[in-house]
Amino acid sequence: MRIARYVIGDQIQFGTVELAADGGGHPDTVATVSSDPLAGPVTYTGERHALDEVRLLAPVIPRSKVLGIGRNYAAHAAELGNEVPEEPLVFLKPNTSVIGPGEAIVRPTTTNNLHYEGELAVVIGRICRDVPKDRVSEVIFGYTVANDVTARDLQNTDGQWTRAKGYDTFCPLGPWIVTHLSLEEAGSLGIRTRLDGAVVQDASTTLLVRDLATLVSYVSSFMTLLPGDVILTGTPAGVGPMTPGQHVEVEIDEIGTLDNVVVEDAGADG
Question: 96 and 223: one domain?
Fold first, then answer.
């Protein structure tokens, strides 16, 4: 199932997306449900819209936090001159950094080296703490696509990563949450990033240094995870700069494509 959050008219709604590629001959549609599926049981309202008639939003606004995992692809760690850490390297992005598909990534005036980082994101579905690896599948609601936007120059000068990864618009998520993938399936997906149509990252989640179960279990060992929390699982090799006017797309097999444009901070000229 694909869970979307979207605007139709002036109302924010949730629904399940049905794609023509699934078979059956129908067009791409979204069937409205009564409320946020992450908040509790839902029912179909009977309302249905063509997918191209609604504006997709970030499929989840985390209730408390977005957690990122750094250097979780060996080739990416190496391309920036870093070693793979002995334990998962965890950082936080504020929920105010989240935007949806089609929204603009704003390059702040404080950076001259803004990077894309295409990633698989895990969405937590229930309150949990100290989750054993063999029970991680019980706490995952689903998976979506993320772009862990990073001001690389600020990351290098600050040492810690809060400012470099925490600006508003630095966490695009979407286009929807896929709930039908198993842990094993999510751990073997192709992931690609395109910049103005050119492929700049092309890898697979099979290359994760630490798999999804390990990551969720590790993070839950020192903090409580809440429904709607998002874990970004790391980016593969091929990161690089993006500048205002460029279009960045992150595509993950079996999930979908997240697309955003980069713009200059409107206050850049005063």
Answer: yes
